[in-house]
């Protein structure tokens, strides 16, 4: 057979199960008339969390200036606003030309890796990870080398273990803080150790900080860039999560640290940005408004706020369950519970997620979709109302009870 219609092997190799086969099956069930609770995606707008009104006004007022292609690196007020945020974080010299605006962090991740990787080059990616990072490394000809962030260590990386994975082919180190899927928020000590490691081995640091203002209780977000002046650090942020504007597709990458050495590379990223002409312009007009003034995300994450209450509902449900364990998420908008091995030793996370969908109409993401071997985890988003999550966990416990009973009856 002629290979004309065959999918490229790289694309076949890549997985993105957050929107994969289970999500397709959920759509079929919906078409048959069932209500499905989608706990698979951190999409605030889908759960009634609106983009702040000031941002919506900023876009509407500037629509008439959004009809032409914009500059490939983004419109000036947006870049300047992000630069000023970094000045406020202690990097007082940050200039607008260190900032690139893209169609979400997703696009920028692709551009920075495509500009960097030669075939076989290695990139250190956390496991579990947000699978876009692994996918983008593979699609750009690289090899993702996963460094474990274990539950026993509150999902923090073990930096000395990580160092042993570095080879002559390692080009970059990816850090996701606050973390998706685990909710870990890294301490200054851990971040410093990662920055020092990157500098010692001359690795580019890619710091994905899209959840930067979503921290609970005593957790504090510490930006990587001020700690990483001895290498090139590229920090990522955007409007999707903190500003609840996923659909506008606005993200940014900020280049700091060893800029002179990295000028050729930065220009290469800009060249790829030019090839796609410009990012969506309308949403960029909201960046300045978003980053200035009152940060309404604080109302959602503070004690009693919507996200805090939902997180508490999950913590309480896991506490009450005979089947589940959880490392308390301290940031981002997910929980990553595990199903107790002593209760269900044979459990397979994909089978569990499939049964949960078929029998309880709840869609979660199996833990192994986040590039870990362990088959006892699943990820949910904390975005629904607390009561919805309470009901969901009742259904999860019912299913796990049934699965445990049927396991006992077959052994
Ligand atoms: C860690 C992380 N990085 C990047 C993204 C993508 O963000 P964007 O909407 O800006 O493309 C997500 C989305 O869930 C994420 O969780």
Describe this protein's structure.
- By secondary structure, this protein is of the alpha/beta class.
- Helix content is 37%, strand content 14%.
- A seven-stranded mixed sheet has the order 2-8-7-6-5-3-4, with helices on both faces. A three-stranded antiparallel sheet has the order 10-14-13.
- The radius of gyration is 21 Å and the shape is globular.
- The protein starts with 8 loop residues before the first helix and ends with a helix.
- 46% of the residues are buried.
- The structure holds pyridoxal-5'-phosphate.
- Pyridoxal-5'-phosphate binds next to α5.
Low-confidence stretches are none
Would you identify the CATH H-level superfamily of the largest domain? Type I PLP-dependent aspartate aminotransferase-like (Major domain)
Taken as a percent bin, the fraction of beta residues is 5-15%
Distance between the termini: 47 Å
Helix content: 25-40%
Largest sheet: 7 strands, mixed
CATH overall fold name of the largest domain: Aspartate Aminotransferase, domain 2
Question: Which SSEs are present, and which pair or pack?
Answer:
Blueprint: H1 9-13, H2 21-31, E1 37-38, H3 53-62, H4 76-88, E2 99-102, H5 104-114, E3 122-127, H6 132-139, E4 143-148, H7 159-163, E5 170-176, H8 188-200, E6 204-208, E7 232-238, E8 251-257, H9 263-275, H10 287-291, H11 297-301, H12 306-320, E9 324-325, E10 334-335, E11 338-339, H13 349-360, E12 362-363, E13 365-366, E14 378-381, H14 386-410
Parallel strand pairs: 1-12, 3-4, 3-5, 5-6, 6-7
Antiparallel strand pairs: 2-8, 7-8, 9-11, 10-14, 13-14
Bound molecules: pyridoxal-5'-phosphate.
Pyridoxal-5'-phosphate (PLP) is lined by residues 42, 104-106, 130, 132, 176, 180, 208, 210, 238, 240, 246, 251.
């Amino acid at each position: 057979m002629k290979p004309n219609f065959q999918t490229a092997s790289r694309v076949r190799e890549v997985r993105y199960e957050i929107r994969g086969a289970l999500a397709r099956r959920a759509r079929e069930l919906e078409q048959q008339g069932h209500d499905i609770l989608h706990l698979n995606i951190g999409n605030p707008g889908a759960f009634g969390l609106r983009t702040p009104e000031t941002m919506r006004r900023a876009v509407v007022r500037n629509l008439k200036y959004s009809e032409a292609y914009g500059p490939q690196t983004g419109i000036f007020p947006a870049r300047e606003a992000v630069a000023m945020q970094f000045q406020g974080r202690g990097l007082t010299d940050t200039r607008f030309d260190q900032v690139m605006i893209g169609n979400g962090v997703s696009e920028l991740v692709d551009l920075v890796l495509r500009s960097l990787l030669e075939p076989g080059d290695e990139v250190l990616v956390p496991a579990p990870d947000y699978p876009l990072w692994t996918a983008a490394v593979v699609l750009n000809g690289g090899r993702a080398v996963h460094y474990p962030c274990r539950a026993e260590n509150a999902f923090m990386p073990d930096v000395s273990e990580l160092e042993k994975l570095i080879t002559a082919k390692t080009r970059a180190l990816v850090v996701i803080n606050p973390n998706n899927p685990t909710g870990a928020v890294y301490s200054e000590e851990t971040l410093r150790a990662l920055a020092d490691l990157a500098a010692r081995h001359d690795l580019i640091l890619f710091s994905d900080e899209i959840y930067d203002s979503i921290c609970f209780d005593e957790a504090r977000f510490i930006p990587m860039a001020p700690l990483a002046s001895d290498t090139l650090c590229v920090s990522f942020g955007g409007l999707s999560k903190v500003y609840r504007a996923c659909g506008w597709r606005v993200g940014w990458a900020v280049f700091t640290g060893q800029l002179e050495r990295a000028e050729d590379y930065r220009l290469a990223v800009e060249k790829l940005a030019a090839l796609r002409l410009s990012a969506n312009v309308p949403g960029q007009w909201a960046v300045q408004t978003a980053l200035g003034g009152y940060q309404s995300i604080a109302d959602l994450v503070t004690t009693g706020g919507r996200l805090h209450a939902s997180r508490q509902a999950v913590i309480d449900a896991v506490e009450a369950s005979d089947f589940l364990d959880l490392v308390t998420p301290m940031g981002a908008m997910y929980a990553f519970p595990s199903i107790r091995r002593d209760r269900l030793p044979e459990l397979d996370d994909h089978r569990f997620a499939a049964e949960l969908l078929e029998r309880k109409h709840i869609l979660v993401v199996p833990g192994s979709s986040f590039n870990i071997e362990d088959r006892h985890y699943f990820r949910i988003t904390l975005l629904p109302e607390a009561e919805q999550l309470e009901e969901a966990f009742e259904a999860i416990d019912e299913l796990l009870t049934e699965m445990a009973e049927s396991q006992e009856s077959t052994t």
